[in-house]
Amino acid sequence: MYLHIGSDVVVREKETIAIIGRRGDADKSKINRAFLQKKDAAGKLINISFNNEKSFILTEDDKVFISPISPQTLKKRSKNPDFREG
After folding, report:
1. 11 with 59: CB under 8 angstroms?
2. What is the pLDDT of residue 27?
3. What is the mean pLDDT of residues 11-34?
């Protein structure tokens, strides 16, 4: 199955490692900022949010997508039972 993450972009659910919120503490974390800067420098950061960043999605192919869709909405869209737990 595929998960629509915004801006006509889909990722395979089974290749999705994590969906992390971009609001609050996630934006304040030095580790998260350094991680995103490293991915950007490596050309692995894909920003599809149009300055409305709500989540970032890590995939098995080492890419990070910045999405305009909240983690809660992405969870609801998912058919993967792993995303529905917790």
Report:
1. yes
2. 59
3. 82
Contacts of 61 (CB under 8 A, 6+ apart): 15
Residue 68 to residues 81, 85, 86, Cα–Cα distance (Å): 23, 22, 22
The domain of 77 spans 2-84
Mean pLDDT within 37-61 = 95
The rounded distance, in Å, linking the Cα atoms of 12 and 16 is 7
Region 47-57: mean pLDDT is: 92
Q: Which long-range contacts (CB under 8 A, 24 or more apart) does 31-39 make?
A: 35/64, 36/64, 36/66, 39/63, 39/64
